[in-house]
């Protein structure tokens, strides 16, 4: 058995874990980062990422959840959209992240997409114009994207970014390592060790065999699905319930005439007027087609031969936290009646926009129940306090699992800001 010793173990390298590790390493703290996945750089920027970096699971009720298992976590495969923290963090828990959000936006140059990105997007522009004619406002989205490096006709954010235009938490992992942190990849954490209510280490399995890391502090940041599993295995009660995942419906249709959203970047525009219930926006043709395949909507497959005429949209639901993650990795997640009603309203609105934009109504296919932001499973007020500490002394959680309810929008900016504030308070 291999053994290590350190001050802090950080489990997971997504936006929460990578930020904590970076901030602690900058303060010359001893840090070991444990990551279940491997880098597999050969898959970045192409569909092989689905095999190399994705973990895709489906609930018994048909909800599909995608997450990234690789250094950088799900930021390697996210669209790169940046939303401010949900108001409940400040209103209900007294967590004000305004200063940290401002710092992160400045540091990472988070801005709405520039005009030149969509000047040559005929399909997306038609959707935006059609939405406006129907009383909706699809606005340019703030993103973790360096527009000077980005190819506006790439639309491969969900495969990873070969050009380095999209910020990912992998850059913070690299920063932490440069500051002296130790990174172990291919490391499957099996248990957090604790004695008399206090953390004293982590047990894991690696390619080289069992690994035990002794430490005085653990920051668990394995995500909304990984974190509750590890808590279950460690004999820590209360985790795994109240699961949400911001499920999407992805729509695909064929234009009557002219081109669709082929080679136009996904999620550059969105209507946020009903944020907290749902948001909807544009999807590139390839991503909209792939979503139909992922959801096993095989009737849409023949349309792949007419890819340049296809147009996509999404509806992202702020779902109720009614699911559960079990110790064996299986999970329960279904749409509640409220979820079904709101999703139906969102789909109806998106269909109307597509038809107004020139899509043939009879060609619209809907891939429903594709989740992307798992959380709620170790929430504040149930598993952790506002200091992010569990009942086990010096065991903290810093990922989307600590959110008590869904914010309904991508949480990456919130998690970076939260992790930065949290790390600043650690001795």
UniProtKB/TrEMBL annotation:
Pfam families: GMC_oxred_C, GMC_oxred_N, NAD_binding_8
UniProt GO molecular function: flavin adenine dinucleotide binding; oxidoreductase activity, acting on CH-OH group of donors
This protein's record includes keyword DNA repair: no
Sequence ranges assigned to domain Glucose-methanol-choline oxidoreductase C-terminal in this UniProt record: 335-419
InterPro entries: FAD/NAD-bd_sf (IPR036188), GMC_OxRdtase_N (IPR000172), GMC_OxRtase_C (IPR007867)
Keywords: FAD, Flavoprotein, Oxidoreductase
Residue ranges of every copy of the Glucose-methanol-choline oxidoreductase N-terminal domain listed in the record: 102-237
Keyword Oxidoreductase: yes
Lineage top rank: taxon: Bacteria
Family (UniProt): Belongs to the GMC oxidoreductase family.
Protein's name according to its UniProt entry: GMC oxidoreductase
Protein source organism: Desulfoluna spongiiphila
């Amino acid at each position: 058995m291999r053994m290590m010793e350190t001050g802090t173990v950080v489990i997971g390298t997504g936006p929460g874990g990578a930020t904590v590790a970076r901030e602690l390493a900058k303060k010359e703290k001893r840090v070991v980062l444990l990551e279940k996945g491997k880098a597999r750089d050969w898959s970045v920027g192409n569909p092989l990422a689905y095999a190399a970096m994705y973990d895709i699971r489906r609930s018994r009720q048909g909800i599909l959840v995608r997450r990234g298992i690789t250094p950088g976590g799900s930021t390697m495969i996210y669209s790169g959209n940046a939303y401010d923290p949900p108001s409940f963090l400040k209103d209900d828990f007294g967590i004000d992240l305004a200063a940290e959000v401002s710092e992160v936006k400045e540091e990472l140059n988070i801005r709405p997409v520039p005009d030149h990105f969509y000047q040559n997007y005929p399909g997306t522009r038609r959707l935006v114009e059609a939405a406006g004619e129907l009383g909706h406002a699809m606005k340019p989205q703030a993103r973790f994207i360096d527009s000077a490096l980005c190819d506006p006709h790439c639309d491969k954010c969900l495969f990873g970014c070969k050009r380095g235009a999209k910020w990912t938490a992998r850059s913070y992992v690299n920063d932490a390592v440069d500051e002296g942190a130790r990174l172990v990849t291919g490391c499957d954490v099996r248990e957090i060790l604790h004695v008399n209510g206090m953390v004293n280490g982590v047990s894991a399995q690696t390619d080289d065999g069992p690994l035990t890391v002794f430490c005085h502090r653990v920051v668990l940041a394995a995500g909304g699905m990984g974190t509750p599993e590890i808590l279950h295995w460690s004999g820590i009660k209360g985790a795994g319930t109240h699961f949400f995942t911001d499920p999407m419906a992805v729509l695909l249709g064929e234009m009557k005439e002219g081109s669709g959203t082929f080679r136009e970047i996904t999620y550059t525009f969105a209507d946020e007027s009903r944020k907290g219930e749902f948001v909807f926006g544009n999807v590139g043709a390839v991503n909209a087609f792939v979503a139909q395949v992922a959801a096993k909507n095989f009737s849409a497959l023949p349309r792949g031969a007419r890819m340049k005429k296809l147009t996509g949209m999404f509806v992202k639901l702020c779902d109720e936290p009614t699911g559960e993650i079990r110790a064996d990795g299986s999970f329960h997640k279904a749409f509640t009646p409220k979820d079904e009603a709101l999703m139906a309203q969102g789909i109806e609105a998106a269909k109307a926009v597509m038809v107004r934009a020139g899509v043939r109504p009879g060609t619209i296919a809907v891939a429903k129940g594709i989740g992307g932001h798992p959380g709620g499973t170790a929430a504040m007020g149930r598993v952790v306090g506002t200091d992010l500490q569990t009942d086990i002394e010096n065991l903290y959680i810093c990922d989307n699992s600590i959110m008590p309810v869904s914010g309904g929008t991508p949480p990456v900016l919130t998690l970076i800001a939260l992790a930065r504030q949290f790390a600043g308070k650690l001795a």
